[in-house]
Amino acid sequence: MSSEVETSRGATSAVSQRDSSTPLGMTKIALIQMGCGAEPEKNFSRAIEFIRDAARKGAQIACLPELFRSQYFCQAEDHKNFDLAEEVPGESTAALGEIARETGTMVIASLFERRSAGLYHNTAAIIDADGKLLGKYRKMHIPDDPLYHEKFYFAPGDLGFQAWQTKRGNIGVCVCWDQWYPEAARLTALHGAEIIFYPTAIGWHPSEKKKFGKAQHSAWETIQRGHAIANGCYLAATNRVGHEAPAVTSARARR
Questions:
Q1: C-alpha distances in Å from residue 44, one per residue of 48, 122, 140
Q2: Is the pLDDT of residue 248 over 80?
């Protein structure tokens, strides 16, 4: 399998995969890397504009970073952050469905899902180019480390590893910490995934970057290259950008 990679100015990068259904035999994907501020509605509006921009540049699949609607709130254990959660499907998936249908671009969006009272998931929604929700994946591997207090917020996923047949190929979706587990990629590939997407929120503590940053980044890239090589598929990961102190939110979530 062969691929070509191009990086555009600003917030998106595009990776093209062979696909006999397109005139040039390629499927172009956009990995949207964006800074996330304290106001969810502003983050959401910026994400919509990035999807439009990617579509204008020919993207057929657009993947947003993990929990893109807010800052990475898992840096602290704070019950107020549960106000950020929403139903999936819900208002966000409806709005993203509209932009998918408008642009003809598939969208992969990571959201804080409120499943029921006291039960929450870190969930990726997969929205087809016609605006329909194909399905969702709930993050299976939940970290619990300093400044990554995800077990305070999220229950492990219960939907298993999946792949979805689309006009742009068979795609699978995992989320961030799943990247470190070979069985996640293997099981997703065994379901037929030709591209595995990983919406991600990962970085360094400023005091550790100088000493450990190079090795940590190398390990992060190496594990993902290994998944692609071992499973004979493409792998695409997108991250948020910038520096975030422990998150402070000034707007409530969509209901």
A1: 6, 17, 25
A2: no
Which domains are seen in the chain, by residue range? Answer: 3-239 (3.60.110.10)
Sign for the pseudo-dihedral over CA of 38, 144, 157, 229: positive
Residue type at 243? H
Residue type, 230: A
Q: Which residue carries 């100015």 as its tokens?
A: 9
* 135-183 pLDDT per residue, tens: 999 999 999 998 899 999 999 999 999 999 998 889 999 999 999 999 9
Catalytic residue among 113, 139, 194, 244: 139
- Catalytic residue of the set 28, 63, 66, 136: 66
Structure tokens of 124? 């990726």
Percent of the chain residues topping a pLDDT of 70: 86
Helix or strand run (H / E) with residue 148: strand 148-149
* Residue 133, φ and ψ in degrees, nearest 5: -80, 115
In degrees and rounded to multiples of 5, residue 11 shows phi and psi of: -110, 0
Catalytic residue selected from 63, 74, 174, 176: 176
* Residue 211: active-site member: no
> Strand 106-116 vs strand 61-63: parallel, antiparallel, or unpaired?
parallel
Q: Are the beta carbons of 106 and 61 closer than 8 angstroms? A: yes
Q: Which tokens belong to 15?
A: 């990776």
Residue 226's SS3 state is: helix
Active site residue 66: yes
Residue pLDDT, tens place only, 120-146: 999 999 999 999 999 999 999 999 998
d(CA 32, CA 66): 10
